[in-house]
């Protein structure tokens, strides 16, 4: 079987979460920009941005608010870039990899450092 490098499996339904992954961010986007954009859709617990890597995590208090924001803001242009929004995957959930998982260290902002996936 050919390995899949597509992180989204079309047969696997997307699991809603109160945490959103926001991608395709301009390096000029600030946490304040994201706060202003997302707070109109519900109460936020916080934002963790990694603009050097073009993404951020937006943490809502309620799943319903995250769903609303995802639907309303998908593709919105922010500082010249159309943003992409997905529900954040829980730490350790790898999709699309067929390599031996114990060989794949990764950084997870949820776990606070490097974790070896087993």
Automatic annotation (TrEMBL):
Membrane-spanning segments: none
InterPro entries for the chain: Nucleotide-bd_a/b_plait_sf, RBD_domain_sf, RRM_dom
Stretches with biased composition (Basic and acidic residues): 1-10
Residue span, RRM domain: 18-90
One Pfam family, short name: RRM_1
Keyword RNA-binding: yes
Keywords linked to the UniProt accession: RNA-binding
Annotated region (Disordered), positions in chain: 1-22
GO molecular function ontology, one term from the record: RNA binding
UniProt name for this protein: RRM domain-containing protein
Keyword RNA-binding recorded: yes
């Amino acid at each position: 079987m050919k390995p899949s490098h597509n992180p989204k499996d079309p047969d696997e339904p997307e699991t809603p979460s109160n945490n959103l992954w926001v991608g395709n961010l301009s390096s000029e986007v600030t946490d304040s920009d994201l706060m202003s954009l997302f707070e109109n859709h519900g109460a936020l617990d916080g934002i963790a941005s990694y603009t050097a890597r073009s993404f951020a995590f937006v943490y809502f208090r309620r799943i319903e608010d995250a769903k609303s924001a995802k639907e309303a803001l998908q593709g919105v242009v922010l500082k010249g870039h159309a943003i992409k929004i997905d529900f954040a995957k829980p730490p350790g959930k790898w999709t699309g990899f067929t390599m031996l998982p114990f060989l794949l260290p990764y950084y997870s902002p949820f776990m606070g450092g490097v974790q070896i996936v087993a």
